[in-house]
TrEMBL record:
Function: Essential component of the vacuolar proton pump (V-ATPase), a multimeric enzyme that catalyzes the translocation of protons across the membranes. Required for assembly and activity of the V-ATPase.
Protein's organism: Fragilariopsis cylindrus CCMP1102
A Pfam family recorded for this sequence: V_ATPase_I
Transmembrane segments: 447-469, 534-557, 563-587, 686-706, 791-814
Stated name of the protein: V-type proton ATPase subunit a
Coiled coil regions, renumbered to chain: 110-161
Keywords: Coiled coil, Hydrogen ion transport, Ion transport, Membrane, Transmembrane, Transmembrane helix, Transport
């Protein structure tokens, strides 16, 4: 975990290598994935680079592979997997077919692939072209056969025709069924109704040779008389892409039958040739599917090598120089890899790797993650990349995010379902790794451990709330009991009594809240108070931890001004008002208020409530005494009877309203109506002074010190010229700009502490909403049907399960997830996280192949 707290140390190196060995060097470095190259040729366009011709060749190979994938997809053939990326990279086999063990030199890899893929592409294109021609011919014969049959049937169906000497001309053909109505309407309008048209649908769909889709078509026959109409009809047919066919005289039955027979025979021959062509293409695509993925990985690897080589600079003939960031602990491994590649090539000129000055002040940020921490790191990176060596919020998010989710979603039953869902995802993680999934399934697989932890903390919080599907579980026997509870004679308004003395160990429920609270009238009041205080405590502690992390960053980077003039005033302000609030909450929880209130209560010394160890007063008043010996008088206040003498109306014997007490710290300084401890007013005045004093320090101290430092640099005490660091002499350090920036920081922090504390009340609000929804679903769907009959109960359970799954197990999980996300991104990370770092993008074959997939 300590390694995850800060990003990996980076080294900026210069790499000089022989041009002949450059390809092999980068091939080995790409397998390591620990270096990010810097472009040393920013002024050159992509077409002016040294290895642009190789990149173009790779692009052409990618185009061919995409063409193969498209053709393979037409036959619904799945491309065979080339195995894992790690196995592919470890393998030294570079044969284009993947079936031989010979390893061509790096220069021949591209030539082998180009030659082989060119042959397959030519063969496939030729087969596709031939298939398109065969399909057109086959479709024409099918359409002609249908035209002959439909026209013959159409004319034969016209019985009782008058035998006229007038002869009509006709146009026959086939048109798409979708265009039939438009086609008929256009003919009617163009010929003004001076034609006679009939349609007959073709039952069997016909394949479109261009798209390969099946189309519904219909045979048409049009009778007309005028030559001008014939010209219009032909133009309309061409416009609607209707195929026209010339038919013999339909009165000559012999010629029509001969034509039908000849066409049927040709149709059979065309179908045989077409099926043979399709079978040949299918077998070729099957063969391509076996190697397509491996070829694609080879091309991606080669293209990545030449893209990286285009970033190198050729300062000396035959030598290439590159620069880039390397993970510090892998620097020796990089040196060994480059030297090994040179040694394998028997190069006389050795390689050279040396550290150089950094080109920009901020190195890229890289964290080493595993399958558990990866999801939380991406969770943070989505908001912004941490600065180099800055405290990583993901380390804390891995613990606090599922915990705060559990606080909002706390329910034993619902949390168990979520936990089991996470267990299922973790159990099947090996099955899902490396499998192409949709975006939602991939996201669930990545966050499987996050879902597991969310479910675990939801169950934990449910145990603390003692809430299971809105019902309390009497796991450790309740410490409260109602009169008549055993015989079910409890009435509304009855008061429960404790089974053990107040404050004793036996009176405390073993873990979580007592289940009796779930059946009381003041249930909502009690749970609201409890959850509201918990929300404030968790929120203030998390925000204060964020402020402390800001100080940790300042110490690590040696930023003394930030530490003393920014972080410390922030911590003083937060501690004086908000940490003090948390302390008051715990003090109120830990004090035995029954004992304190009893000490300010008047009792009759002769009564049953009087205890033997109490002090009997002189009974000079109304005859009653307090346990500490004060003689009660009618009209005495609590302050008169309280022995603590803390001041205020309660004098320490009355539990305070914390909200009022906290508001009065600022609105009524020195006035504590219901104190908890002695000297509370003086302590709160000191804390208020510290809080108010920290604001001007936070606002003006840092800009003043920065201004003094810049003035000292601008006017050095000696006459010797001190050269400023590069870029600093041109930087504008105007006092006004610095003050404005610091004012924004101050206002954001001061107001943010107040608003963000209120924002954490969403923990209480979401938990309340979840428990109330569960209660409503249980009462309306289950309780209301249990007393009817078994069938109503059956239907009620179905409705209860449906709304529970849809609302509480789906919508509410997403809602609580988003609110926990916001609490981390806005309330927690804003205290210390800059989110303007540069992500480390290593030259890695594995990453490139995975991204392409």
């Amino acid at each position: 975990m300590a390694k995850w707290f800060r990003s990996e140390p980076m080294e900026y190196i210069s790499l000089i290598m022989n041009e002949d060995a450059a390809h092999d060097c980068l091939g080995d470095l790409g397998k390591l994935g620990v270096i990010q190259f810097t472009d040393l040729n920013p002024d050159l366009t992509p077409f002016q680079r040294r290895y642009v011709s190789y990149v173009k060749r790779c692009d052409e190979l990618e185009r061919k592979l995409r063409y193969f994938s498209t053709e393979i997809g037409k036959f619904n053939i799945e491309c065979e997997s080339a195995g894992t990326v790690d196995t592919f990279l470890e393998s030294d086999q570079a044969s284009s077919t993947g079936g031989t063990a010979e390893t061509p030199s790096s220069g021949k890899i591209m030539e082998n692939l180009e030659g082989e893929l060119e042959g397959y592409e030519s063969q496939l294109k030729e087969l596709n072209s031939y298939s398109e021609k065969l399909t057109i011919e086959y479709n024409e014969k099918v359409e002609l056969q249908e035209v002959l049959e439909k026209a013959q049937n159409l004319l034969e169906s016209e019985e009782g025709r008058p035998d006229l000497d007038m002869k009509f001309s006709s146009v026959t053909g086939v048109v798409s069924t979708e265009e039939r109505s438009n086609f008929e309407r256009m003919i009617f309008r163009a010929t003004r109704g001076n034609c006679f048209i009939r349609f007959a649908p073709i039952k069997q769909p016909i394949t479109d040779p261009e798209t390969g889709q099946l189309m519904e078509k219909s045979v048409f026959i049009i009778f007309y008389k005028s030559d001008s109409i014939e010209i219009k009809l032909k133009k309309i047919c061409d416009a609607f892409q209707a195929h026209r066919y010339s038919l013999p005289d339909m009165d000559d039955a012999a010629s029509v039958d001969n034509m039908l027979t000849d066409n049927a025979q040709e149709l059979v021959d065309s179908r045989t040739v077409l099926l043979k062509n399709q079978d040949t293409r299918y077998r070729l695509c099957q063969m391509l599917a076996k190697h397509c993925e491996r070829w694609t990985w080879h091309v991606l690897k080669e293209k990545a090598i030449y893209h990286s080589l285009n970033m190198f600079k050729a300062d000396v003939s035959g030598m290439l120089r590159g620069e880039g960031w390397v993970i510090g602990e892998n620097l020796d491994e990089v040196k060994g890899t480059v030297e090994k590649a040179h040694a394998n090539m028997d190069m006389s000129m050795p390689s050279l790797i040396d550290n150089v000055a950094q080109p920009w002040p901020t190195p890229p940020t890289h964290f080493v993650t595993n399958k558990f921490t990866y999801a939380y790191q991406e969770f943070v990176n989505t908001y912004g990349i941490p600065r180099y060596r800055e405290a990583n919020p993901a380390l804390f998010t891995a613990a606090t995010f599922p915990f705060l989710f559990g606080v909002m979603y706390g329910d034993i039953g619902h949390g168990t379902f979520l936990f089991l869902a996470g267990c299922s995802l973790v159990w099947n993680e090996k099955k899902n790794e490396g499998v192409k999934q949709d975006e939602l399934s991939e996201g669930l697989h990545i966050g499987r451990y996050m879902i597991l932890m969310m479910g675990f903390f939801a169950v934990y919080a449910g145990l603390v709330y003692n809430d299971c599907f809105s019902l309390g579980l009497n796991l450790f026997k309740s410490r409260w009991e109602f009169e008549g509870q055993e015989d079910m004679s409890v009435e509304e308004g009855d008061v429960a009594y404790q089974l053990a003395d107040y404050g004793s160990a036996e009176s405390v429920y073993s873990f979580g809240l007592d289940p009796m609270w779930h059946v009381t009238q003041n249930e909502l009041l009690f749970f609201n108070s409890f959850k509201m205080k918990l929300s404030v405590i968790f929120g203030i502690l998390q925000m204060f931890m964020g402020t402390c992390l800001k100080g940790v960053n300042a110490v690590y980077f040696g930023e003394k001004l930030d530490l003393y003039l920014e972080v410390l005033p922030m911590m003083v302000f937060a501690a004086a008002l908000f940490i003090y609030m948390v302390i008051l909450i715990f003090m109120k929880w830990s004090i035995n208020w029954q004992e304190r209130m009893g000490s300010a209560t008047c009792y009759d010394p002769a009564g049953d409530e009087w205890q033997a160890d109490w002090v009997v007063c002189d009974q000079s008043g109304n005859g009653y005494c307090t346990p500490w010996g004060y003689s009660c008088v009618d009209g005495d206040t609590t302050a008169d009877k309280c022995p603590l003498d803390y001041g205020g109306s309660g004098d320490g014997c009355q539990p305070p309203n914390l909200i009022t007490s906290l508001i009065n710290i600022a609105l009524a300084p020195g006035d504590v109506d219901e104190p908890i401890y002695k000297g509370q007013a003086e302590v709160q005045n000191v804390l208020l002074f510290l809080a108010f004093a920290s604001v001007p320090i936070l606002l003006f101290a840092k800009p003043y010190m920065i201004s003094r430092q810049h003035n000292a640099r601008a006017h050095p005490p000696t006459e010797e010229h001190v050269e400023a660091p590069h870029g600093e002499e041109e930087e504008d350090h105007g006092m006004g700009e610095i003050i404005i920036h610091q004012a924004i920081e101050t206002i954001e922090f001061v107001l943010g502490m107040v608003s963000n504390t209120a924002s954490y009340l969403r923990l209480w609000a979401l938990s309340l909403a979840h428990s109330e929804l569960a209660t409503v679903f249980w009462e309306k769907c289950m309780l209301s049907t249990l007393s009817v009959n078994w069938f109503a109960t059956y239907l009620g359970f179905g409705l209860f399960a449906a709304v529970t799954f849809g609302v509480l197990l789906m919508m509410d999980v997403l809602e609580c997830f988003l609110h926990a996300l916001r609490l981390h991104w806005v309330e927690f990370q804003s205290k210390f996280f800059k989110a303007d770092g540069i992500r480390f993008s290593p030259y890695s074959f594995k990453q490139i192949i995975n991204d392409a997939a």
